[in-house]
Sequence to fold (390 residues):
Amino acid sequence: MSKIKIIFQKTKSPRREERRNLVISSLAVTAVILIISLLTLFGADREFSENENRYLAQKPSASPSSVADGRFMEDSEKYLSDQFFSRDIMVQARTSIDIFLGKKEENGVYIGKEGFLFEKPSAYDEERVSKTAGVINSICEKHPKIKSYIAAAPNSSEILKAFLPLNAPDENQSEQIKKLYSKLRGITKIDLFSPLNAQKEKEELYYRTDHHWTAKAAKLAFDTIAGSMKLDLSKTKYRTIAVTNSFQGTMASSSGLFSAKDTIFITVPEPEIKCVASYPDEKKKRPSIFDSSKLKTNSKYEVFLGGNFSEIIIDTTAKSDRTLLLIKDSYANCVVPMLTPYFKRIAVIDPRYYVGNINETISKENVTDILWLYNTNTLLSDTSIFDKLA
Fold:
């Protein structure tokens, strides 16, 4: 009997050991979750995430109506998710694991080769594009004596197709631009695809972490635009200066790849052109079209013009009698400094925020030239052009 008992005890011992280890592991996991939960609940709430470049959900207040209709529970989930202890580390870790497992898209951002992140290209919508073209044609027809130009900038997904993830859906932006241009009348159509595509092997044309083009791409675009507008470039030289090497763009913020960084360069004319920028909606003036304070924030691209505003009036010391109306999105912001030697005044309008009357602005400012400068994704998708400018 004693031998049988000894054998029986030996066979039971490993199971007890397994149970004990399982209990210890469960308690350890529970303790970690409890500690993180307590740190989340009792830690200081953050109002803004620099890495994600957005405001975070704040602690909701309960009311009979919000509890009854479920809003309180929904807001509580958002709050706990946004204020989760070490959220930035967790988000980046999750993204890194997803990439390691072969995932090629995070929150609408394509994870490309060599660290390039791509915005999904806009699809071509015939009705929407026809409306946009109709507004542009209408403005040209109302002001036939004014020289009008349009420059649609291709996005990185078009020029850097070789860096897109395998089998990523994309659009033929070159053909999209041609279709849009074919609908326009009385306006000079500027081809930016060809000069950018010709330099894609040689130059850093787009940021890796952001959807904007770089100073090098903007200078190529400016040279092409200047040729069409007959601007005399022989008397002006341009100097390119690095202003920050810690730029983390919107694609990095959206995807959770917070460790990637870019360098922002600005291109300025020589000799220097002094400018005074007026912001009518904000009722303020600035003695520069650059805002260096933005380099201390996560929105470092806003060093150009201070960001996006409905309207900016820029007065320059240029020896010129021409006034430019620039209708644009944020791609144009880094091109504006290059335009300053050739216009005594530049009126900048962003239709996404503008609520004025564009024809009144054209008359009031004695505009001699109109330039539409957009990236293709925005030009194809931005309904504010025909909603507000029609």
In short: The longest strand covers residues 237-247.
